[in-house]
Each structure stands twice: as structure tokens, then as C-alpha cells.
Amino acid sequence: MASFKGKVLKIVSKIPKGKTLSYKQVARLAGSPKAWRAVGNIMNKNRNPKVYCHRVIRSDGAVGGYAGGTAAKIRILKREGAL
């Protein structure tokens, strides 16, 4: 059985270009609907370029954090057509 972290990374790696999921949606899809903060922590530590952590946003529509900075996250999401 895959770990929660493994499930999260797999889900996020499959978010298509131009689409986003919220931290809460990712947690629910990974089987732990209340673990949205854990999803944020996993994304914060992610350095794998094949896991598209910039495509995970807050439930209220705000972009949330990003290791490369919020402005970079917004720029990438706009370029991909997600914003």
C-alpha cells in the first residue's frame, strides 16, 4: 500500500496543464480529506520537476505558497492557462 505522501505526489503529477486542484481536493483524492495541511507540507518539500506542485492552490482560489515565490507561481499558472 502506498504512503499518503506517495499518493499525493502521484495525484499532483497527473494534474494536466491548464488545470489546478486545491490542497483539500488532493487530500480527499489521496484518501485523507482533512489532511490538506499535510498536502501543503509535502508540496513545500517537493523538488521533483515531474510533480507539478504549482498546480495546487488554496480552496478559496488564492494561489498559496510556492518555493519559487508566489509571483513565479502566478506567472507559471497564467502561462499554462490556469489563471
Description:
- There is one protein chain.
- With 83 residues, the chain is mostly helical.
- A two-stranded parallel ribbon has the order 1-2.
- It has helices at residues 4-13, 23-29, 36-45, 70-80; strands spanning 21-22, 56-57.
- 46% of the residues lie in helices and 5% in strands.
- The protein is globular.
- Helix 2 packs across helix 3 (36-45).
- The chain has a single domain (4-80), classed as Winged helix-like DNA-binding domain superfamily/Winged helix DNA-binding domain (Arc Repressor Mutant, subunit A), CATH 1.10.10.
Low-confidence stretches: none
Task: Give the number of helices.
Answer: 4
Into which percentage range does the β-strand content fall? under 5%
* Apparent shape: globular
Query: Structural class, from secondary structure content?
Result: mainly alpha
**CATH class, anyone?**
Mainly Alpha
How many domains, in number, for the residues? 1
What is the H-and-E element order? Answer: HEHHEH
Tell me the helix content: 40-55%
Q: Alpha-carbon distance between the termini? A: 35 Å
Radius of gyration: 12 Å
